Recover the amino acids of this structure.
């Protein structure tokens, strides 16, 4: 199933996306017509908390009433929100070797450009990539980010005033179900509710300054709307292998990258097992894969400009589209 959160008449609703991703079936309204409200359909978190029982109820309801046209809305008639507007926690990783190595070179090339101009930048970009630091193969690397600043598909992201270098990052996102500590990797798949697209917008100049403190990103990654999820959550049965998905980035209609989710240093199951060591992982948490190789501007030296429209596409999920604008423009 594809599961979305949408707003209509001032209220947020949960829906099954169907009709070739063109319509949203209102689960709460359908349950009322079916004879009784179902609290599992009150929000996406409520549906996640209901576990397989909630998903089975949603499937059965759609089978019974999916053909009733007045229970579905065309996507153009509603406002899609982030499918999980307030995750219980958000963690973002560094799982793709190509991105890790290329972003390091990209940062050095950007510094060369500031000091020596375009020729210095091009020379730095032609330099060999550094070896991957051993720690990335020893443990999953991630940080905790701000779960309260989540935006959704179609949102206009307001460029933070303290930054001159805005970037996009295409990531595969995973949502948890069930609550447990010390999850064995062999059992972690049962704790995955579904997958979505994550645009980890980044203020690169502030991030560059912060990382000198060796603690992790703060304002480089944390500003209103910086964490964008969408357009919906897709359940694992429709995804298959999450490491065999084609991805693409388009900016103003121009394709800037085509890549694949293959080659994660640690699968989501391994990340869950590691993160849950003597720490309870709750249903409704979000884990980002880290940026897929070639899928951010830092790696290529092409950052964003005022008014740019970014489309991130992941096979079997869909397209997450947003616009960025300067607040002082």
């Amino acid at each position: 199933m594809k599961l979305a959160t949408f707003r209509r008449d001032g209220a947020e609703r949960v829906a099954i996306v169907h009709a070739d991703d063109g319509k949203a079936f209102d689960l709460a309204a359908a349950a009322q017509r079916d004879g009784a409200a179902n609290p599992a359909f009150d929000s996406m978190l409520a549906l996640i908390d209901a576990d397989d029982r909630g998903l089975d109820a949603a499937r059965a309801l759609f089978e019974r009433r999916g053909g009733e046209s007045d229970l579905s809305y065309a996507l153009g008639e509603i406002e899609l929100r982030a499918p999980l507007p307030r995750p219980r926690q958000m963690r973002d990783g560094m799982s793709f070797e190509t991105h890790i190595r290329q972003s390091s070179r990209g940062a050095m090339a950007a510094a060369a450009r500031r000091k020596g101009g375009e020729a210095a930048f091009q020379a730095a970009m032609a330099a060999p990539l550094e070896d991957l630091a051993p720690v990335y193969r020893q443990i999953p690397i991630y940080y905790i980010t701000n779960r309260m600043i989540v935006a959704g598909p179609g949102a206009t992201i307001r460029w933070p005033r303290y930054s001159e270098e805005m970037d996009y990052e295409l990531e595969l996102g995973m949502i948890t179900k069930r609550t447990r500590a010390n999850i064995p990797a062999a059992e972690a798949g049962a704790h995955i509710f579904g997958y979505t697209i994550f645009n980890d917008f980044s203020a690169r100049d502030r991030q560059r300054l912060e990382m000198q403190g060796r603690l992790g990103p703060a304002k480089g990654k944390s500003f209103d709307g910086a964490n964008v999820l969408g357009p919906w959550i897709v359940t694992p049965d429709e995804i298959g292998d999450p490491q065999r998905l084609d991805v693409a980035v388009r900016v103003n209609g121009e394709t800037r990258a085509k890549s694949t989710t293959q080659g994660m240093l640690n699968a989501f199951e391994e990340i869950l097992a590691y993160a849950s060591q003597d720490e309870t992982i709750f249903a409704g948490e979000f884990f980002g894969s880290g940026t897929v190789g070639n899928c951010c501007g830092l790696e290529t030296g092409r950052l964003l400009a005022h008014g740019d429209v970014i489309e991130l596409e992941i096979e079997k999920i869909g397209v997450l589209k947003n616009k960025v604008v300067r607040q002082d423009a």
